[in-house]
Amino acid sequence: MSEPTSTSPVSPRMIGAAVLGVLALVFVFQNHERGRIDFLFWSISMPAWIWLLVIFAAGVIVGLLVPKIRARGRE
User: Which of 3, 18, 27, 29 registers the highest number of CB atoms within 10 A of its CB?
Assistant: First the structure.
């Protein structure tokens, strides 16, 4: 008879998520100074980490759209 395998309550995925969460908090606390962005006729001031988060989100959206645009062009 085989013995039941014990499963650890902490998976490698949970450890990775915790490490990324801590790194994200460190990033936010180190980049809390306000920055000003001028674009066309808008001028907006907010913490640097928010600007970087917005730029990251825009990059993710573009990255998700590019394969769909390429696939449409091959048809």
Answer: 27
DSSP code at position 31:
T
d(CA 4, CA 22) in angstroms, rounded, equals 34
- Rounded CA-CA distance 72/75 in Å is 6
Q: Answer whether residue 7 is part of any domain.
A: no
Domain span at 30 = 13-74
Determine the Cα–Cα distance for residues 44 and 56; give it in Å rounded to an integer.
Answer: 18
Q: What are 40-57's pLDDT values in tens digits? A: 888 989 888 888 888 888
- The structure's pTM equals 0.54
